[in-house]
Amino acid sequence: MSSDREAGILEHGFTAVPRDVDGKLLKGAKNVKDPVSLSTKDIEFPAEPLVQKVQDYARAHLNEQTFHHSMRVYYYGRVILRTQFPHWTVSPSTYALACLLHDIGTTAPNLRATLLSFEFHGAFVASSLLASLAAPQAQNDAVVEAIIRHQDIGTAGTITTLGQVLQLATIFDNMGGHAGLVHAETIKDVVAKWPRNGWSKCFAQTIRTENTLKPWAHTTALGEEDFPEGVLGNKLMEPYD
């Protein structure tokens, strides 16, 4: 393996980890370690120009609720990495790009622009944007892979570290999944900075809209009714919606 390829794998979160969160990563426990109370002030958001440009793009194209969700996913994921999986190597900048763009395929124009499931089309949109901004190819690839697979929930095989933390953080925000990974005070702080504003109803409607437009959508693999009902039944985040 070339040194450049190996460096790209390590920097951008391409190391393989199990898909099976409960059985292999947590080994039946609710967490690896007891969560620590961290605030958004404890987690730096990348200031580099590429990330700032993509953040501006996301803010301009996503509705406010989805943009706020994307920012919460960033902070929850960084907290999960720091407290539960500190040995995972994931560039904060690459993770920020994946968070900002993971739901770009759910915008009204993008949902209707293609017959592809939103994650797949969104990944193409993200790749084109990152290429236009001269992102390194390994970083572009990492973001695309993570976006495509961020709803690829299962137990067999592996996923990238970037993809797994993106999954964990999105499921945590959307459904209250693996609630033991993040401290309650952290949730309060993140939601105070990036309010949910009825996110559960907003996202459940997005799921149903895609499933109506595209009955073949990959989202249906999570359950045509189980998934949106699970989002609406998010008891962990209910006090903040």
Question: Can I get a quick summary?
Answer:
Helix 3 runs parallel beside helix 5 (92-101). Helix content is 56%, strand content 2%.
Molecular structure report:
The protein has 241 residues and is mainly alpha-helical. It is built from twelve helices and two strands, in the order H-E-H-H-H-H-H-H-H-E-H-H-H-H. It has a two-stranded antiparallel sheet.
Relevant terms:
241 residues; 2% strand; globular; mainly alpha; two-stranded antiparallel ribbon
Structural class: mainly alpha
Low-confidence regions: none
What coarse outline follows from CA principal-axis ratios? globular
| SSE pattern, N- to C-terminal | HEHHHHHHHEHHHH
Ends apart, CA distance between termini? 48 Å
Strand count, sense and barrel status of the largest sheet are: 2 strands, antiparallel
Radius of gyration: 17 Å
Strand order across the largest sheet: 1-2
**Secondary structure: helix percent:** 55-70%
- The tally of beta strands, per DSSP, is 2
The proportion of residues in beta strands is: under 5%
Mean pLDDT: 96
Please work out how many helical segments DSSP would assign: 12
